[in-house]
Automatic annotation (TrEMBL):
It is found in: Cell membrane. Belongs to the binding-protein-dependent transport system permease family. It comes from Jingyaoa shaoxingensis. The chain crosses the membrane at residues 12-32, 81-105, 117-147, 239-262. Signal peptide: none annotated. InterPro entries: ABC_transport_permease, BP-dependent_transpt_permease, MetI-like, MetI-like_sf, OppC_N. Residues 73-262 form the ABC transmembrane type-1 domain. It is a multi-pass membrane protein. This is ABC transporter permease.
Length: 274
């Protein structure tokens, strides 16, 4: 029945196909780009406008922009999925533990979460990345450190809804161990809503990573990463606008596709719709 619900949702079908095409383009980047190296260029070909030879033009080092945009999908998508997966894992585990055990465990975890929420997310992420140093790995860690609280608080609230139910109390009385209780009752109750949240967060996490790289706290040269490419093109915005147009367009398209895909998954899996 659920399979039919996914297939019957036209928005899900269309945007899942588009998302799959984007992922395949990133995986098979050498094939899509015809084997052109995204890191090598010739100063003779620097800042060439879009043409038959270079459909997106070239950058100030003579590197092909189309090739760098396609390879940039690898870095951007890998980092984004990594961020979402880590936030999902850390937030879910801490939230379920906090909600189930309560008491001092709950108080400690939630006070740490409250401290994180007291600061603007991106500003705190920039501070963490600034302390650790500029790299895509450190940018991922910085965003995870800041963003896990959303999932923790959501998982905690979902666990609190069922913690005192009769069937949970009965399981405890019959001798069920804590790991079994967490895996059999608490986690399954929280997972559907958390998965929906993760699916809708892919676009926003990609924007945060791009912002980190744009501000110099993410990818380092000469890596082909969309946020860093925008930063590189900023100096030539008037003389060579294609340096910013195409990476910006790539971010826009991918964020819209994954946002719409996440929204369609939410519409299908949302318990309220049943």
């Amino acid at each position: 029945m659920k399979k039919n619900r996914f297939l019957q949702n036209k928005t899900f079908v269309v945007f899942s196909i588009l998302a799959l095409l984007i992922i395949l383009a990133a995986i098979f980047a050498p094939v899509v780009t015809g084997g052109v190296d995204p890191l090598k260029g010739s100063l003779v070909d620097a800042l060439l406008p879009p043409s038959k030879e270079h459909i997106f033009g070239t950058d100030k080092m003579g590197r092909d922009i189309f090739t760098r945009v396609i390879y940039g999908a690898r870095a951007s998508l890998t980092a984004t999925f990594g961020v979402v997966a880590l936030i999902f894992l850390v937030g879910t585990v801490t939230g379920v533990i906090s909600g189930y055990f309560g008491g001092i465990v709950d108080a400690v975890i939630m006070r740490i979460a409250d401290m994180m929420l007291a600061f603007p997310g991106l500003v705190l992420a920039l501070a963490v990345a600034g302390i650790m140093g500029a790299s895509i790995k450190n940018a991922i860690i910085a965003i995870v450190v800041v963003s896990w609280t959303k999932y923790a608080r959501l998982a905690r609230s979902l666990v609190l809804k069922i913690r005192d139910r009769d069937y949970v109390s009965a399981a405890i009385v019959t001798g069920s161990k804590t790991p079994y209780m967490l895996l059999r009752y608490m986690l399954p109750n929280a997972l559907p809503t958390l998965i929906i949240t993760a699916a809708t967060d892919v676009g926003s996490m990609m924007l945060e990573l791009a912002a980190m790289s744009f501000l110099g706290f993410g990818a380092k040269p000469p890596a082909p990463e969309w946020g860093y490419m925008l930063n590189e093109g900023r100096a030539c915005m008037q003389s060579a606008p294609w340096l910013m147009i195409f990476p910006g367009l790539a971010i826009f398209i991918v964020v819209v596709v994954f946002n719409m895909l996440g929204d369609s998954i939410r519409d299908i899996l949302d318990p309220k719709s049943e």
